[in-house]
Design goal:
Layout (H helix, E strand, L loop, with lengths): L1 H46 L5 H10 L5 H13 L7 H12 L7 H8 L10 H48 L1
Helix pairs in contact: 1-2, 1-6, 2-3, 3-4, 5-6
Length: about 170
């Protein structure tokens, strides 16, 4: 009886691990699309809305779904902290690093976001808009890659998790 319970637990754990990995591949294109749309909204707030950066970031955060909204809300909160002597770029970098683990995004996207730090709030509106459009273009290219990886590896991880767990159970008996 104890063997059957152990085998069931191993199968469940292996299957759950495979589905968790597949879910991460499925979340990445969605988050890239949300992030691109959020950066487009931020560009509009800066160029047309003439909003101060913390206010613009809060508006983008309220119009975006989690976990992408967490990035903008965190950056706005750090910029609004009156005690801080950090620049907007420093706040943006800290927010990216703080929120990164909650996302399914990978290194190239992080590099694109961190590249925005020297310009956000430090240059004129036109220069900020150019850098935001560049980041959006880079995110769109990564979204295409992410969709291909999702199609290629998503099914593989779902099957691999269950099959590896089954192999472990067979080897144990």
């Amino acid at each position: 009886m104890l063997k059957w319970i152990g085998a069931t637990m191993i199968l469940a754990a292996g299957t759950a691990y495979g589905f968790a990995q597949a879910s991460r591949y499925a979340r990445r294109p969605k988050e890239l699309r949300l992030l691109g749309a959020a950066l487009g909204t931020l560009e509009s707030e800066i160029v047309y809305g003439l909003s101060p950066l913390p206010e613009a970031l809060n508006r983008v955060a309220s119009a975006t779904q989690k976990p992408v909204s967490l990035l903008f809300a965190d950056a706005a909160a750090r910029m609004a902290d009156a005690r801080s002597e950090r620049t907007a770029g420093d706040c943006w970098k800290e927010a990216v690093n703080a929120v990164w683990s909650a996302t399914a995004l990978q290194g190239p996207e992080k590099a694109s976001l961190l590249a925005l730090a020297p310009t956000l709030g430090m240059t004129d509106r036109d220069d900020q808009a150019k850098h935001l459009r560049l980041a959006i273009a880079q995110l769109r290219a990564e979204e295409e890659t992410a969709r291909e990886e999702q199609a290629r590896y998503g099914k593989m991880w779902r099957s691999l998790g269950a099959l590896t767990a089954a192999l472990v159970v067979i080897l144990m008996y």
